[in-house]
Design goal:
Layout (H helix, E strand, L loop, with lengths): L2 E7 L3 E7 L15 E6 L1 E7 L3 E7 L2 E3 L2 H5 L7 E5 L7 E7 L3 E7 L6 H5 L7 E6 L2 E6 L3 E7 L2 E3 L2 H5 L8 E4 L6
Antiparallel strand pairs: 1-2, 1-3, 3-6, 4-5, 4-7, 8-9, 8-10, 10-13, 11-12, 11-14
């Protein structure tokens, strides 16, 4: 089981509340949130309720002033525990929406789809077969990130609420439980 503690003020001060599972809206529990401590597991934290908005990956450690660290303008409003995964990691990526275009199967981290596979741009849909992944909008794990669990993702635009969305790099979520 994972455990994360959020604090209303920086440096782990003020009222606090802990979670051991997903929370879609932290507002009933905390007036604001400026720091957190992850005691176990890996988590995605979101700057909007219902697991929406910008996403940030956190693992065991202390985040005394995460808003400054990540450049956030809003505090965390929801959080999701990433389930433990043992076994292979496998994702199929597609050059176009709806599993169209060129397809590649990825089983390890990829810091640049354009460099490794000589694609002119990133990928626009994927099918996560095994494992949990972080996908990034730019090569070398830069830019905004999104969490993907096993499932089919036909159209990233619907997920992120912007125009033609492509991802350029991806990495497996490993070693979350110790």
């Amino acid at each position: 089981m994972g455990k994360i503690i959020f604090f209303e003020d920086r440096n782990f001060k003020g009222h606090s509340y802990e979670w051991t599972s997903d929370c879609s809206d932290m507002a009933p529990f905390l007036a604001r949130c400026h720091s957190c401590r992850v005691e176990s597991g890996c988590w995605m934290v979101y700057d909007r309720p219902n697991f929406m908005g910008n996403q940030y990956f956190v693992r065991r450690g202390e985040y005394a002033d995460y808003m400054s660290m990540w450049g956030m303008s809003e505090w965390v409003k929801s959080c999701r525990l990433i389930p433990m995964h043992r076994g292979p990691y496998r994702t199929r990526i597609y050059g176009r929406e709806n599993f169209m275009g060129q397809m590649m199967e990825i089983m390890d981290d990829c810091d640049s789809v354009t460099e490794r596979y000589h694609w002119s741009s990133g990928f626009m849909s994927c099918h996560v077969l095994d494992g949990h992944w972080l996908l990034y909008e730019m090569p070398h794990y830069k830019g905004r990130m999104w969490y993907f669990q096993p499932g089919e993702y036909r159209n990233f635009r619907e997920m992120v609420g912007t125009g033609s969305m492509r991802f350029m790099s991806m990495r497996r979520i490993l070693d979350c439980w110790y």
